[in-house]
Amino acid sequence: MKITSEMRETTNLTDVDKAFGKWLRQAFENTVITDADRKENLAAIKFLKRPAIEKVVLFDDHGSPSEFVDRFERAAKSKGIEASVLPAVYYTSGSVIDSAALTDHIPVLLDSFESTEGGWDVETFIDKVALSYRVVVCAWDNPTLTALTLALRSFLRQSMLVRHASQYFKDSVAYEKYGVSTRFKAKTMLMGMPVTLDVDIDSLGSEMMSKVISDSQSKRLLSNEITISVIADTVTAFSFPNTAMRYEGSLKELIT
Q1: How confident is residue 177, by pLDDT bands cut at 50, 70 and 90?
Q2: SS3 for 204?
C-alpha cells in the first residue's frame, strides 16, 4: 500500500504473539531426560527431540485442549499422516487486558523523519499494552504431563527469579550463566518501516498450574494450564504534510 500524508497506523499484535512463542520455547531448549530406559519417560523424550518450532505452537481460537487435539489430528489425517499430536504445548494469541502498571503511563514521541518520497513527514508515538496469554500443556498420560509441566514451570520460575533479582546478583557472574530473561523483542513493520517492540513478562497467573481432564475422541486427555501476562510496546505512526509544525512532547499535553 502506498503511504501518503494524513494516514495513521498502529502496530498490531501478531508479531508480539510470535515473539512470545519463541521466548516460551526456551523452556524446552537443551532440556533432556536421561533415564531413557523408563517407559514412562518415552513420550516426553520423543517430544523433547522435536524441532523447536514444533514444541510450542500458537492455537488462535482460544479453544479447549480437546478442540486443539481434534483440529490438529483432523489436519494430519487429511494429509494422510497417521500421528498423534500429543504430547504438545500450545498458547493462545494475546488478549488485551487492563493493568495497574499502565495506569499512569503516557504515550511519548519516539521518532520523526521526512519521507524519502518528499512532501510529507512521519512521527511515531510509543505506548504500552498489557496482554494475557494462556499456555497449555497436553498429554495422554500423567507421567508425560508432569515431566513437561515441571520443565515449563522451572523455566518460568527461574525467569521471574532473574527479573526480581537484586542488583548484587545481576552484577555477579551467576547472573550471566542463567541465560533466562523476562524481556524479549518483537520485530514488526509500520508504514513500510521495520520497528522493534520491547516485550516484558509482567506476571504469572498462578504458581501452581490448573489441571484439566477432558475427552478427545473417546480418549482421556490431561492438560495443565497457566496464564502469563506481558507488557508490550505499541507504536502509532502519523503521516502529515511536511509544512505542518512539528510537535515534540507527549500526547497528554495535546489533549489536556
Answers
A1: low
A2: strand
Task: Determine the residue type at 177.
Answer: K
Q: How many whole angstroms separate alpha carbon 145 and alpha carbon 48?
A: 13
Separation CA 88–CA 221 (nearest Å)? 11
Distance CA 101, CA 81 (A): 47
Q: Which cell is 22 given?
A: 519463541
Neighbour tally for 203: CB within 10 Å: 17
pTM, 2 dp: 0.82
Residues near 88 by Cβ (< 8 Å), separated by ≥ 6? 47, 57, 68, 69, 72, 137, 138, 139
**CA-based nearest residue to 189, from 14, 4, 5:** 14
With cell 552484577, the residue in question is 171
The x, y and z cell numbers of residue 140, run together, are 495422554
SS3 labels along the chain: CCCCCCEEEECCCHHHHHHHHHHHHHHHCCCCCCCCCCHHHHHHHHHHCCCHHHHEEECCCCCCHHHHHHHHHHHHHHCCCCCCCCCEEEECCCEEECCHHHCCCCCEEEEEEECCCCCEEEEEEEEEEEEEEEEEEEECCHHHHHHHHHHHHHHHHHHHHHHCCCHHHHCCHHHHHHCCCCEEEEEEEECCEEEEEEEEEEEECCCCCEEEEEEECCEEEEEEEEEEEEEEEEEEEEEEECCCCCCCCEHHHHHC
User: Using one digit for the tens of pLDDT, what is the confidence trace for 65-122?
Assistant: 888 888 877 777 776 655 677 899 999 988 887 766 677 777 777 777 666 666 677 8
